[in-house]
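Could you join me in thinking about how sequence relates to backbone shape in a protein? We need material for that, and I hope you will provide a protein of your own picking. Label the sequence line and the structure token line clearly, so we can match residues to local backbone shapes. Would you write everything just below, so we can both look at the same thing?
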Amino acid sequence: MANLDYLIPYEYIDTLQELFDNAPVSSYESVRQVIMEEFGRAPEELFDDFSVEPIASASLAQVHVAYDKVSGKKLAIKVQHRGLRETSQGDLFAVYCAVRVADFFFKDFTLGWLIDEILPQLPKELNFINEGKNAERAAQQLRGSTDIVIPKVIWEKTTHRVLCMEFEEGFKCTDIQALDQAGLKKR
């Protein structure tokens, strides 16, 4: 919802923006367990220099840096927070109920349609194979562009809960100083 700044009032967006920078971080042991459950092997067996600390975290997953054991290429390893699949159905039901109650009691509350959009999408977002296929589809559609890079998916190290891609250096689009240093127009 925090990405819907063109639809939702500023007060909501301002509060929800905190979720971008203060998302929960899973422990390394939890990340290691997800990788063990998905591959039957520990991160250190699959990758070189798998970072214990994530470089980013969001509500569904966090990203760690590692290196390919054969090529030495830098990789981004997105690992779903452990237990998320199991708890998401209950969370969705709770949000659904809260939105429907707000819809019923507050006639000016017109965001009930959001839950209808979110409900079928979350299971798709929890499937990183789907995300990998979407990345490949985007890369295909944008081939030939010199302005856009879609990292390559490493399929042999990707599952429903782990997405492995080649690492692309970058910075947050809200980092004004980095935008200026890169010579990019903020508009």
